[in-house]
Design a protein that fits this description.
Chain A is an all-alpha fold and 142 residues long. Chain A has helices at residues 9-33, 45-64, 76-103, 116-140. Chain A has one domain (9-140). In chain A, helix 1 packs antiparallel against helix 2 (45-64), helix 1 (9-33) runs antiparallel to helix 4 and helix 3 (76-103) packs across helix 4. Chain B is mainly α and 50 residues long. Chain B has one domain. Chain B is built from 4 helices and no strands. In chain B, helix 1 (3-10) packs across helix 2 (14-21). Classes of the chains: A mainly alpha (142), B mainly alpha (50). Chain A binds chain B through residues 8-10, 72, 75-78, 138, 142, and chain B through 11-13, 15-16, 19, 24-25, 27-28, 30-31.
């Protein structure tokens, strides 16, 4: 037993899915539920500190699960499943861009801008989708 | 031979060997040849198309 356990790739990805989900939920709260621009307004101090500590722990865990030393080395099947997950995400973006080009103007969305908070939210969603798809292909991909 | 031991010898994860055994994964030529080499036999003796 080492001081820091060596995770299997599936374990690392599962942990990362949970972490990105938590980041996504926190960012969703900031963006869509609480007062925009003032996400901390009216929230008790102990909850603010708890959320901050939780997110800090999540960041540490994500970093831990990306360090090669602590995670099983990917083999050819893992590389293949990573390609498949990335490929599906790329196709999804391709379709979304296509839909935007075709229907964006009709819906009155001629200019598309993303702020910092939305980028963090998208980043967590993307990572969640990538790791989730990887696990899906690991489990069900033939 | 246990899955973990074979996995370590051919440089893949134990799960990959498990999926190979259940016919759920088609190995690369290199992996197939590495496994055949471990058992000192030919690829055709271990893998076959259905």
């Amino acid at each position: 037993m080492t001081r820091f356990p060596r995770l299997t790739l599936s374990q690392a990805k599962t942990i990362r899915v949970i972490c990105w989900f938590l980041v996504g939920v926190a960012q969703f709260f900031v963006l869509f539920i609480h007062a925009q621009g003032q996400p901390m307004k009216g929230i008790p101090l102990f909850i603010r500190i708890s959320v901050a500590v939780l997110l800090l722990i999540v960041v540490c865990i994500v970093i831990y699960t990306t360090i090669d030393k602590f995670v099983e080395k990917p083999d050819e099947r893992a590389v293949l499943n990573n390609y498949r997950a990335n490929s599906l995400l790329y196709s999804l973006f391709f379709v979304l861009f296509g839909l935007y080009i075709i229907f964006g103007e009709k819906l009155g969305i001629n200019t598309f801008s993303i702020n910092r908070e939305q980028i963090i939210f998208l980043f967590s969603l993307l990572n969640l989708a990538q790791d989730g798809l990887f696990l899906f292909y690991e489990r069900f991909g033939s | 031979m246990e899955q973990a031991a074979l996995a370590e010898q051919v440089g893949v994860r134990r799960e990959t060997i498990g999926r190979l055994e259940r016919g759920l994964y088609n190995p690369s030529l290199k992996l197939a040849m590495d496994i055949a080499k471990v058992f000192d036999t030919t690829v055709e003796e271990i893998f076959f198309f259905e």
